[in-house]
Design goal:
This protein is an alpha+beta fold. It has a single domain, classed as 2-Layer Sandwich (Alpha-Beta Plaits), CATH 3.30.70. Helices cover 39% and strands 20% of the residues. The chain is built from 7 helices and 4 strands, in the order βααβααβααβα. It has helices at residues 11-15, 19-28, 43-49, 59-66, 81-89, 102-106, 121-131, and strands spanning 2-9, 32-39, 71-79, 115-117. It has a 4-stranded antiparallel beta sheet with strand order 2-3-1-4, with helices on both faces. The longest helix has 11 residues, at 121-131. The radius of gyration is 14 Å and the shape is globular. The mean pLDDT is 97. The site of guanosine-5'-diphosphate (GDP) has 9 residues, from helix 4. Residues 58, 61-62, 92, 110-111, 113, 116, 119 line the site of guanosine-5'-diphosphate.
Length: 141
């Protein structure tokens, strides 16, 4: 099924100058970026985006990190894009991520794990809407 998912290149990925490398992996993995922009979240915006984790002990660290520098957000489109993107990302903890995944290659800790990806169709819709207007989404395939 043709799906859309939200990807974020987190502040560590931008600082490491691997934006291009990550987008290359998305394209070679069969996904098309249909919207891309860079931004920097405020702490409040990061808290809103990760609202589901507000009770977790790592919420403060997560939202401080996510607002610590520029990020690149992408809406990706492709067959089974949500799962496909999760496969390319690898496990949340880079130490547990499979060989060949983005987090295994570039992640340095569970906090600095380079990328975010939606985990289900309803969250993908909500997360894409968090960053993009409908008119920003431009299917080019
Ligand atoms: P993801 O979908 O793989 O990004 O994982 P989650 O949605 O469960 O968590 C969001 C982000 O919170 C992850 O990417 C991690 O950076 C962070 N995180 C999740 N679980 C933990 C944890 O147990 N400890 C810490 N320090 N951070 C965590």
């Amino acid at each position: 099924m043709l799906e859309r998912t939200l990807a974020i290149i987190k502040p560590d990925g931008v600082r490491s100058r691997i934006i291009g490398e990550i987008i290359r992996r998305y394209e070679q993995g069969g996904m098309t970026p249909i919207a891309i922009r860079s931004t920097q979240l405020t702490k409040e915006q990061a808290e809103a985006f990760y609202h589901v984790h507000r009770e977790q002990p790592f919420f403060g660290d997560l939202t401080s990190f996510m607002s610590s520098g520029p990020i690149v957000v992408l809406a990706l489109e492709g067959e089974g894009a949500i799962l496909r993107h999760r496969e390319l990302m690898g496990a949340t903890d880079p130490a547990m991520a499979a060989d060949g995944t983005i987090r295994k290659a570039f992640g340095t800790s569970i906090d600095c794990n380079v990328v975010h990806g939606s985990d289900a169709p309803d969250t993908a819709d909500k997360e894409i809407t968090f960053f993009f207007k409908n008119t920003d989404l431009c299917a080019i395939t």
